[in-house]
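Why does residue order matter? Because the sequence determines the fold. Keep that principle in mind as you read this record.
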Amino acid sequence: MPVGLFRVCLLVITAIVNHPLFFPKENGTVPESTEEIIQKMREREESLRLEQLRLEQEIAEQEATQKALEKAAVVVEESKEEKVRWDMWTALSMVIFLLIEIWRQDFQEGNWQDIGGEEDEMAVLGKAFKGVAFPNKAVLASFYEKRILGTTGDMARMREMVEGFADDLLEALRSVCNRDADMEVEDCMGVGSMYENWRVRKPFVCDLIVPFAPPEPYCFRCQTWCSGDSFPPDEQGYGTIKVCRADEDTTGCICDKTKLGEDMLCLLHSHVSSTRPSNEMEDLLCFKNTQYLDADQVMKWFQIAVTKAWNKISHKYEFDLSFSLLDSPGALKIKFKSGKSIAFNLTPVVQYENSDVYFISHFPRSSLAADIPSSTHWFLTFAVYERRFIQLVSKTLPANACHVSCLQILSFLHGKQCSLTGPSGLTNYHLKTVLLHLLQARPSQDWAPEKLEARLQDMLKFLERCLHEKKLYHFFIGNEKVPAELGFPIIFQRAEPLNLFRPFVLRRDIYRKMVDTFHEMLRNMSALINEYTVHIPLAHTNGIRKE
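Structure:
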């Protein structure tokens, strides 16, 4: 109890002592008036409010800047995406445009009809045949008798005269050549339309090929595009001819492919025999610094040799001999004093192994080898086998078969059309290839003389389909159905088929010209035939409309 009273008393005394009234004014802090305190609080509040506004403004500016940056980034990103989408659509549009343009060029001037619904695959009628009046049997028979047979009667006599003179000329050529250094020339052979009896256009020109071989101890080693080594697509149908010594290893030795050291010696070949002077190879008509036979060198040598041979025997003949075409080195012309002339082609060739396939230096009057890769590339000709095939098939056909007549009529129409509209990529060799395919596909009885009209239509339809597809395959290359009696080399039968229309796939201008010429020939066919046909009653001359 006394302790509690003591604590209360101490608290009262402390409160009394600390009261402000017990101290003088100069020694204490006199509280300010209420108005002054309120005024200062208002000023403080105002300053705080202004500061808050300033801070809020700065924050708003920072947020606006951030939003602007983010918006700019979004715009840039969207522009990139839009550019990518635009580039994609641009590329896609260009592809679509190119496809449409290709389609338009292929199918302009009338759409082609697809093949289908026919039992006979050859019986293809495209729009090109719609509205075409096809001559009937009577008109075709009259035309053939008057125009074809009436102008081909002198071919046999001309062939005999040219062959006799060519044999004499080649015999003289052998006598003027150096047997130890010059090429050895063999007997000539007749090939082509004059010797297959279907040439109709004048002037008549005989095509003769002359095989030649190198002097001893050399030989030719031929390599074709289908012999195993890879050849570019534009070199299909070509080959190279290597001039080698007959005692060289045909399989080759590594000393030819590997650079031996100075202290190393090949036990099979001496250094002397493996290296030949370049002038020796050039004397053998090889391309410079190579062992490959040069077609240009061969033609130059052949022209010089023929000129020397003619100078030796010219006194025996009462006519002149000259080279008729600068771009065809083997084109010769006999000029009689009466003003008449006879043209023929004498072309050197190289035999492929032991077959009747030949490497030919150039094609006279033809565009088949117009784009030869180089002068060391030689085109292969199967003309001898083509002639033999026609002769072989002719033995199985009915008497007076119409196969040759079809080719003659078609060749005449094509030649006449080219004389009106200019030459095109389509050649007589293409027409002959069409006939060879049909001869193999059609049974023998289908070539009876009374079926001339139907077979001529088949050839035109087959050709139309080939032009549409841009595919006309070589008859022999890749054809495993070639008769065994021909003795045709198996390497070419097993080769990939060779498309004769392949050069026109990329050269669209030539292809378009070829198609236009074909269409014009169809439209003008009746007029061209009627021009050379004797008058036949109207009831027999009405054309047959084709669907």
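Residues 23-31, 105-125, 268-278, 535-547 have pLDDT under 50 and may be disordered.
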